[in-house]
Task: inverse folding
């Protein structure tokens, strides 16, 4: 499927480590204002794909671009338009939450007023404002995820790349988080949403890409994937396309 407003495009992208092919001729596109689920068992190549998109490593072959720019050679420009939420955020634990946000905001050239407004608006919705005076070392996993999301969205990105974003959040925080994500989508932000929570992906994703052993094994809307597989749920689609065997993610 081709989008007039494509923000992310992979064409026959492969990445090998020695004789091991972690990603094998992967192709898909993500449009503006779309949530795409990136699904697959451990070892499917999802993490390698995300690292290539973030310019952390170069693909072995194929073309990979964000907003028409090469993810690796133009990564400094690409990252001005991307917000990244990793599964395990790492912070300078001797700093307070608000200090980390102010630091990231200054690096991105944002004014104190913009930073403060973002904290009040998004931090308030996530219930984190009262905790921003605490040292990051004392944050729970859920609080670290919320802080990392605030940092990822400070500059109002055109694309959000998120890896297990609700891991560590309780049900109330998860609902608030997803509501905030939806507000970005409504403004035209594209979202690549890597998760193992298939019921969540079924609820929120416009389309899904399913990977297994580095290859694309399924792509389309949830309804399309279910119809093609002749099953009733995305979980059944997942097992039909990938099987049950899982190995460590690459």
Result:
């Amino acid at each position: 499927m081709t989008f007039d407003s494509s923000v992310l495009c992979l064409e026959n992208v492969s990445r090998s480590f020695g004789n091991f092919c972690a990603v094998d001729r992967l192709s898909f596109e993500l449009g503006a204002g779309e949530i795409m689920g990136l699904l697959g068992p451990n070892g499917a190549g999802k993490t390698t794909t995300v690292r290539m998109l973030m310019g952390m490593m170069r693909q072995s072959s194929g073309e990979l671009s964000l907003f028409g720019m090469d993810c690796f050679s133009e990564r400094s420009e690409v990252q001005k338009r991307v917000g990244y939420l990793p599964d395990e955020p790492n912070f300078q634990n001797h700093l307070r939450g608000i200090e980390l946000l102010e630091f990231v905001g200054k690096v991105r050239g944002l004014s104190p007023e913009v930073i403060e407004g973002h904290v009040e608006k998004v931090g308030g919705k996530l219930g984190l404002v009262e905790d921003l005076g605490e040292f990051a070392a004392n944050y729970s996993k859920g609080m670290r995820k919320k802080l990392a999301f605030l940092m990822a969205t400070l500059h109002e990105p055109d694309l959000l790349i998120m890896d297990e974003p609700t891991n560590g959040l309780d049900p109330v925080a998860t609902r608030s988080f997803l509501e905030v994500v939806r507000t970005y989508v409504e403004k035209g932000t594209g979202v690549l949403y890597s998760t193992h929570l298939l019921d969540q992906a079924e609820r929120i994703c416009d389309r899904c890409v399913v990977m297994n052993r580095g290859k694309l094994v399924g792509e389309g809307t949830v309804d399309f994937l279910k119809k093609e597989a002749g099953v009733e749920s995305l979980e059944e689609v997942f097992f039909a396309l990938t099987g049950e065997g899982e190995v460590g993610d690459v």
Notes: Residues 245-250 have pLDDT under 50 and may be disordered. The first strand starts at residue 6 and ends at 17.
